[in-house]
Amino acid sequence: MDVKVLIVILLSAVFVDNYVLSRFLGICPFLGVSKKIDQAVGMGVAVTMVMLLATAVTWPIQYYVLNTLNLGYLQNIAFILVIATLVQILELLLKKFSPSLYKGLGVYLPLITTNCAVLGVTINNIIDGYNFLESMVSSLGCGLGFLLAMVLFSGLRSKINDSKVPAPFRGLAVTLIAASFISLAFMGFSGIVENIFA
Amino acid sequence: MNKNTSASVLLNGILKENPVLVLILGTCPTLATTTTVDGAFGMGIAAMAVLICSNVFISLLRKVIPESMRIPCYIVIIAGFVTIVKMLVQAFLPDLYVTLGVYLDLITVNCIILGRAEMFANKNPVVASALDGIGMGLGFTLALTLMSTIREVFGAASFAGIAIPFLENYKIEFFTKAPGGLVVYGLLIALIYVVTHGRAPVKKSFSCEGCPNAGTCHGAACEKKGAES
């Protein structure tokens, strides 16, 4: 297994193809749960966890069940069901065995079922033709990228709250424009990661 | 039900409760597929088809689906229709299929569709739900087309793939990139505030109201009211 390939996948998922800032997946929680930094961290960690678990389950399903039975067209239904079930089970387990963790992460779990970043990453891993290990690394990268974007953005938002914003821009408009600046900063990473070992 | 005449249900989605610009639902496809007018229009129509079908189906089944299991049921119904639409697009519009890529699959988790199922289809009769689907779908398509027109004309100096010669030398590529999408969306929301003199009920921020997940998370994840302004 070439470790360099894995590192490139990880870094490009975090910085270059950041799911929130360049692919626009998971914008709802990005805008909704980034008001405070602890919320942002909680949501980011929960999403990373679900992404890893979902990939660990959906990859074998795609290759050993759907592909062998020639049921590729059921991918969408199968994946969303897996994610929804997984989130429910995770919530129940956390509630039962780790109430403190549940308090920190559990409240974000129901929001993740309909988070398009999770479905997006599982489908993208199949489209990109990654093997199991590469898929897991790419999911980890996407989750970490989501976490990074959330934390950076929650810092920026506390600044916005303290400043005077013209009336038409108050609320969501200025939030979106601020998000655009972070996205612009992330664009600077493009082209760096691909050549990191060149 | 007297208040909801057919015409008002239909117009509601296009203007007063435009899903993209007023309700702020479905932000992901709004930002991701509006780099070209073709892609945005296709996305709008595809989502509208799924929305109408799922609204009708959920409305038909609204007395059968148990309250506690409704979200998984809705998701399966929606995913089924998305698969149908995806196969149709792949067969008849292969170019669009390539342009939209994974975003076609992601109609499944588009908050507009689940949101309308939660907010409208599960408590209204079939015809009203279908009209709501058409109205919301048209509103979504219109908003997407508007945004993509701005982005394509200024960013790529073309409209729906047709080049606009006199803008050729003044392309602002920023608009076709990811940050450009966020800026255009932000400016459009600000513009609506100006045009309506602040009377439009544009959501100030994300709150539990209108969030399709509010029923499952009991408002734990987001603050009760949009305190930020």
The total strand number of chain B stands at 2
* Shape call of chain B: globular
Biggest interface goes to: A-B, 54 and 57 residues
Low-confidence runs of chain A: none
SSE-based structural type of chain B: mainly alpha
Work out the radius of gyration of chain B.
18 Å
Percent range for β-strand residues of chain B: under 5%
Give the helix level of chain B as a range of percent.
Answer: 55-70%
Mean pLDDT of chain B: 79
Q: What is the subunit arrangement here?
A: heterodimer
Low-pLDDT runs of 5+ residues of chain B are: 204-210, 215-229
Radius of gyration of chain A: 18 Å
Q: DSSP helix count of chain A?
A: 9
| Main beta sheet strand tally, sense and closure of chain A | none
**What percentage of residues of chain A falls in helices of 4 or more residues?**
over 70%
Describe the structure.
- The complex is a heterodimer of chains A (198) and B (229).
- Chain A has helices at 3-16, 27-32, 37-66, 75-97, 99-105, 109-113, 116-127, 132-161, 172-187.
- With 198 residues, chain A is mostly helical.
- In chain A, helix 1 (3-16) runs parallel beside helix 8 (132-161) and helix 8 packs across helix 9.
- Chain B has one domain (9-217).
- A two-stranded antiparallel ribbon of chain B has the order 1-2.
- Chains A and B meet through helix 2, helix 4, helix 6, helix 7 and helix 9 of A and helix 2, helix 4 and helix 9 of B.
